[in-house]
Specification:
The chain is α/β, with parallel strands linked by helices and 234 residues long. The chain has one domain (5-233): NAD(P)-binding Rossmann-like Domain (Rossmann fold). Helices cover 33% and strands 19% of the residues. It contains five helices and nine strands. Strands 3-2-1-4-5-6-8 form a seven-stranded parallel β-sheet, sandwiched between helices. A two-stranded antiparallel sheet has the order 7-9. β4, α3 and β5 form a beta-alpha-beta unit. The termini are far apart. 35% of the residues are buried.
Length: 234
């Protein structure tokens, strides 16, 4: 019997890589999507890396066509994302445009590409949103708006699709350490204060928890936060 197949975006680092490893441990076959896998060493016959800039929407039919009607495709994880933080008028225009595409347009369009097949397969879609999506977020207004939009999309799609057996889960992580997410930001996780940030493995365990529920039980939302609220200003 063929293994069930998962597609994970942003699979080359951080949360996406942690989720990929967890799915492989759960005996899924995984196809990971990222622009660059040169620093990834996953020695598994069940993993395939596909290099793709997700913002090049016109490439989806060419590079993902073989998956569109694949009867094994059961999981779609939207983990790819970027963050630009600061006063809105000070954020670089091109970086702002790319962030909004990656965080908002990409999950919607990629879901559209695979949705009929995932419904047929009683699949599961995971949207990696953010804790900023649920509250006013100064110095992250555009980032929070994109994440809030994708949360609302997931909620609406669930109501639209729930009778098909499709499961949809939105995960709202707070600040997460050991990733490249904050490399160009003015702040990062505070490594000197244990308990002030999540790990990518925490989010991966949340995905596993959702997958372990019985059929027709859908964990709709999870919000993960560390015990302390503290960041380190660079």
């Amino acid at each position: 019997m063929n293994k069930k197949l998962a597609l994970v975006t942003g699979a080359s680092s951080g949360i996406g890589l942690a989720i990929t490893k967890t799915l492989l441990d759960l005996d899924f076959s995984v196809i990971g999507i990222s622009r660059d896998f040169s620093k990834v060493d996953l020695e598994s016959d069940s993993f395939e890396a596909r290099s793709l800039d997700l913002c090049d929407f016109h490439l989806y039919p060419k590079l993902l066509k073989d998956l569109k009607n694949n009867p094994s495709l059961s999981i779609l994880v939207h983990s790819a994302g970027s963050g630009e933080f600061g006063m809105h008028e000070d954020i670089n225009f091109d970086k702002l445009d790319r962030m909004l595409q990656l965080n908002f347009s990409v999950p919607i369009l990629l879901t559209h590409f695979f949705l009929k097949n995932l419904k047929r397969n009683s699949g599961h879609i995971f949207f990696l949103s953010s804790s900023t999506a649920t509250k006013p977020s100064p110095l992250a207004s555009a980032y929070a708006a994109g994440k809030a939009g994708i949360t609302h999309f997931a909620d609406s799609l669930w109501e639209e699709s729930r009778k098909t057996g499709l499961k949809i889960t939105t995960i709202h992580p707070d600040i997460t350490g050991s990733t490249l997410f904050y490399k160009n930001s003015w702040f990062q996780e505070d490594f000197n204060t244990p308990g002030s940030f999540l790990s990518p493995e925490d989010i991966a365990k949340a995905v596993q928890f959702c997958l372990e529920q019985r059929d027709m039980i859908s964990i709709r939302e999870l919000k993960l936060q560390p015990g302390y609220h503290k960041i380190h200003k660079k």
